[in-house]
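Figure 3 (text version): structure tokens given as input.
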């Protein structure tokens, strides 16, 4: 079976960076039955988000496409079966066999077992730990020549606080202020909390399983750093956003010590 995700933990820091929707690989059995083109898959995945994780010594990088199994959904919803499961997109030619479904669910359960094991180790070592659940989102869906979506409704950075204990809210505000104050080519970044996205199953699972020790922010970067339709990356914009995220690292470590 193809690898669902890569776990790399050095336990030198209480910060984890994850990019669970980064993956594009699909197993042969699933690929035969996919009704969605590779281009559409790439648009709906979060390609290159693993680049945002490199400043952390603890990372989880998705390798399998969300169109095989979606790690940010509950186990009941992690396999897209109908168009309403996947933004109206017909993803399967026919209903997957029980064997294919069971193999995908096996990967899903293995992922969450490993995540819990690593997070438990961090909890034992540091007491408190922080997770960046990194994603990206589209804002040019209407067509390559169409206007971009209204920026008033689509911040450049969305900070999702799904199911987060209130004690972490001051830390979230501090991170937001740090991102806004970052010099992004001579201007500030538009970073807002819980606009459009509040986070998915993964961040909710982390807070449910580690309610006293884990702070997980589901952070969505608007794809201002790439062409959604061609996949072209604007390296200067991407690197600057990575730098902005990296600028919060020391702040998070120092703030965690106060809890």
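Below: residues designed for each position.
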């Amino acid at each position: 079976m193809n690898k669902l995700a890569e776990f790399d933990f050095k336990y030198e820091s209480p910060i984890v960076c994850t990019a669970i929707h980064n993956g594009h690989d699909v197993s042969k059995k699933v690929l035969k039955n996919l009704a969605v083109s590779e281009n559409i898959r790439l648009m709906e995945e979060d390609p290159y988000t693993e680049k945002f994780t490199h400043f952390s010594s603890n990372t989880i990088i998705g390798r399998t496409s969300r169109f095989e199994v979606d790690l940010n959904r509950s186990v009941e919803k992690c396999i897209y079966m109908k168009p309403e499961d996947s933004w109206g997109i017909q993803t399967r030619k026919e209903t997957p066999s029980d064997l294919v479904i069971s193999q995908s669910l096996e990967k899903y359960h293995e992922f969450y077992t490993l995540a819990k094991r690593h997070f438990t180790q961090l909890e034992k070592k540091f007491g408190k730990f922080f997770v960046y659940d990194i994603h990206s989102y589209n804002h040019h869906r209407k067509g390559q020549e169409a206007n971009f979506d209204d920026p008033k409704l689509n911040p450049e950075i969305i900070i999702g606080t799904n199911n987060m204990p209130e004690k972490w809210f001051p830390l979230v505000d501090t991170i937001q202020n740090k991102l806004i104050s970052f010099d992004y080519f001579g201007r500030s970044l538009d970073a807002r909390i819980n606009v459009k996205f509040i986070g998915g199953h993964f961040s909710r699972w982390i807070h449910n399983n580690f309610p006293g020790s884990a702070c997980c922010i589901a952070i969505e970067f608007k794809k201002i750093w790439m062409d959604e339709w061609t996949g072209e990356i604007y390296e200067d914009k991407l690197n600057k956003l990575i730098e902005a995220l990296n600028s919060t690292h020391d702040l998070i470590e120092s703030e965690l010590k106060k809890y």
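Residues 5-256 form a domain with the Aminopeptidase fold (CATH 3.40.630.40).
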